[in-house]
TrEMBL record:
Organism field: Caenorhabditis latens
Protein's UniProt name: HMG box domain-containing protein
Stored Gene3D superfamilies: High mobility group box domain
Keyword Cytoplasm: no
Matching InterPro entries: HMG_box_dom (IPR009071), HMG_box_dom_sf (IPR036910)
Entries under PROSITE patterns matching the protein: HMG_BOX_2
Domain of life: Eukaryota
A Pfam short name: HMG_box
DNA-binding span(s): 6-65
Start and end residues of each HMG box domain: 6-65
Keywords from the UniProt entry: DNA-binding, Nucleus
């Protein structure tokens, strides 16, 4: 199984930037980006601390919510289920050897056995386990309307 690439969680500066952005009635990017950057650089570490703390909380939350493994096919589901048994059977085997053995095992399955994995894969796909779930509230590309906790 492969893990899905995750969006980057919000950092302290982005949290600060979004808070200040709400206070600026008419935002002009060419003018205000520089001002925000200078403001951030001139802040003391004590003033920045709440942003770093919130960023840490959001990162932990983001990590917990996005540790979903992606299964791309019924064969991938079969391999994931069989991998531990193969490792126990052949403890000194390399990852390449294990993959090769799993490939041979899958090819040797009957259509009936393969259909079992196809059915399970379709069920997982319905529940969106196969694609992962990104939490837009903890990601940079998320909504900007409400960032309070």
């Amino acid at each position: 199984m492969e893990t899905k690439k995750r969006k980057q969680p919000l950092n302290a500066y982005i949290l600060f930037y979004r808070e200040i952005l709400q206070e600026v009635p008419e935002f002009v990017p060419s003018r205000d980006h520089k001002k925000f950057s200078v403001l951030w650089k001139n802040m003391t570490s004590e003033d920045k601390q709440p942003y770093f703390e919130k960023a840490d909380r959001l990162k932990k939350l983001h990590d917990e919510k996005t540790l979903v493994k992606v299964i791309k096919s019924p064969r991938g589901l079969f391999k994931e289920k069989q991998r531990k048994d193969i490792r126990k059977q052949f403890p000194s085997a390399t990852a390449k050897e294990i993959r090769k053995h799993l490939k041979i095992m899958y090819k040797g399955l009957s259509k009936k056995e393969k259909s079992k994995y196809m059915k399970e894969f379709k069920e997982l796909k319905k529940t969106d386990i196969t694609t992962g779930d990104r939490d837009s509230e903890t990601c940079i590309d998320g909504p900007t309307d409400d960032w309070s906790e």
